[in-house]
Amino acid sequence: xKQILMVGAGSVGGFFGARLAKxxxxxxxxxxxxxxxxxxxxxxxxxxxxxxxxxxxxxxxxARQLPRPDLIxxxxxxxxxxxxxxxxxxxxxxxxxILTLQNGIDTEDRLLAKIQRDxxxxxxxxxxxxxxxxxxxxxxxxGTVSIGELMGYESERLLGIRDLxxxxxxxxxxxxxIRRTKWEKMCWxxxxxxxxxxxxxxxxxxxxxxxxxxxxxxxxxEVAAIAATLKVPxxxxxxxxxxxxxxxxxDIHTSMYDDWKAGRPTEIDYLNGYIVEQGRKLGIPTPVxxxxxxxxxxxxxxxxxGQGRVRIEGAVVQPVSFDRAAIASLPxxxxxxxxxxMPGMKGWGIRLKGLLDIPALAIEAxxxxxxxxxxxxxxxxxxxxAREHGVLVYELDGAPLPDTKGGPFRLVTPGLGDLCANVxxxxxxxxxxxxxxxxxxxxxxxxx
Length: 448
Ligand SMILES: Nc1nc2c(c(=O)[nH]1)N[C@H]1C(S)=C(S)[C@@H](COP(=O)(O)O)O[C@H]1N2
Ligand SMILES: [Mo]
Description:
Bound molecules: the ligand Nc1nc2c(c(=O)[nH]1)N[C@H]1C(S)=C(S)[C@@H](COP(=O)(O)O)O[C@H]1N2, molybdenum atom
CATH topology of the largest domain: Rossmann fold
Distance between the termini: 54 Å
Number of strands: 20
CATH superfamily of the largest domain: NAD(P)-binding Rossmann-like Domain
Helix content: 25-40%
Shape: elongated
Mean pLDDT: 93
Radius of gyration: 27 Å
Structural class: alpha/beta
CATH class of the largest domain: Alpha Beta
């Protein structure tokens, strides 16, 4: 196993990859464009309690530009697996081995289903580290892995991987039952990831109150019931083990907490959400994991674009604010099929007439200014023009109108004959007496 390809340079892939690359010139990285740019410019830096170092490995966004790997190490988020599979597919051979270090119980099975060859070695990472910025990882605690063949035996390739890790100074434990090892880590993840988000604090805070032990037992009990049904029995004192395993990392947050605070998606669907999904399939109740999944989503899932709200204010009796769902639930007669105003596009807009009916407009209000969320662009129409021509597009192909198309809310004004009035990213609709702010140019060539 000579050539090694690390996929991702996040908190897991970045740390282990950098350690491997430090002493091994055959380690290269497959990275997202913005991480790639950072790593090419200033290398990949690990700032650790054990010391800081920087490596400058070969890296690319296209696996075909790197040496063909004998071993691929996946250290990306569970939700990126499908994307990564497509990216590595062109460089796979009959002999490529894939080691998974990411969270998610079914990662290995998803890989096997897609690649249809015995190419996967299972792994679990024990580490607490954080992305500071692309190409810079802070490492706080632990930094070990467990690996194992899914069938449990000590294969040559397994020992080969262990040697790679140990010669890079990474403690690597061989697990005779990697599925069980994964489920044990899953228990810890399903407990402390959501709890740190819910309490907005560190692991230690969750352990301060004895009532929490009951909650932890219930979460772990549900996870263990699913695992047992899937033929992976966990020890009866699993909940106590989970708590014990937390003692040495009492002062940390969790990756879910960090993902949330950094505005990234969380892995909830692959942790507690996975338990709920399996519970449904297997007829096993998972009420606590279900409650946690729902609460974590309510707290962490953001609208895909911007703040996702538009506010009508100014010369109104009471300002009102809408999100996409609120707009979509306005009376049907106000909705416009966007294909009638933006040919070839499938989606929905709301007529300004319908929107302006909702707040009570001040007497003598006669203009409407549409302000983009960046505060830089605005167009002011007369109330009549807005009522007659204005349509706020809020949905394309069943999803929020993307930023790239001027979403989440874009004003279009079919029939008005002025493209410049198509305000992208409308965040504020201001009712005025007399004309309001308007940054449109008097002479503006179409599309400029
Ligand atoms: N937020 C915002 N909306 C905007 C603009 C802008 O600079 N910012 N430019 C306007 C002008 S002058 C035109 S001609 C159209 C261009 O739309 P297009 O980029 O879809 O061609 O968007 C309008 N909407
Ligand atoms: Mo324009």
